[in-house]
Amino acid sequence: MALFKISPIHKVACIESVNNVSSENSKRQIDWATQVDLNHLEDEQRLKVMNLLSKYNSVFAQNISDLEQCDLIKHEIHLSDQVPIRQKPYRVPYHLKPEMRSQINVLLEAGIIQPSTSSFSAPVILVKKSDGSYRLVADLRKLNAKTVPDNYPLPNLTEMIDNLSGANFFSTLDLTSSFHQMVMHPDHTKYTVIATKFGLFEYKRLPFGLRNAIAGFQRLMNLVLAGLNEF
């Protein structure tokens, strides 16, 4: 999973490893000098950050095909009954059919979805993003309606902000397609099927829009980041 931590940097940087992170550089090396602006740091600090980025180059995904997976916890879906939900594909405007085909191919090649023969199915739509591109979104409302809720507690934002009191440097790390880095339990992928003009496909990774996705992902993050709760 694409995770690491850089603690606040003063004269001597303290770098702390996080569970499930490898420094193996199996992916194409990123030219960090052209990708990040570190002019606000001193020379010694800047060198330490650049060395860290180069060492953990492999945890940075430049596209969805670069995503790794974390299987410390496999997401499960528990339903109130086992009556299959069958929905037909939504109509797709003719000019968007190539876009949908392309997005499905990308998900297939990335190992996020796979062909399915499940008796469950949910339609998908293409949602236009602010940058003009499209996102493939599954309409899982009927599945969510019969999903038993997971009441795992989520972080308290106010408490998290309080914990940052007195810090001099603040860093944020944004996971690329975070849910797609969490593995679905193989016995539960049958519930995540999407129906398209091009066939049925089920998610091998956690899909967006799924009830309990946030709770399940938070449980995984708490496990991965165990022992790193203090700032």
From TrEMBL:
Query: Which InterPro entries does the record cross-reference, listed alphabetically?
Result: DNA/RNA_pol_sf, Rev_trsase/Diguanyl_cyclase, RNA-dir_DNA_polymerase, RT_dom
Q: Where is the Reverse transcriptase domain?
A: 127-230
What CDD domains does the record tag this protein with? RT_LTR
| UniProt-listed Gene3D superfamilies | 3.30.70.270, HIV Type 1 Reverse Transcriptase, subunit A, domain 1
Q: Which example biological process does GO assign this protein?
A: DNA biosynthetic process
Name the chain's protein.
Retrovirus-related Pol polyprotein from transposon 17.6
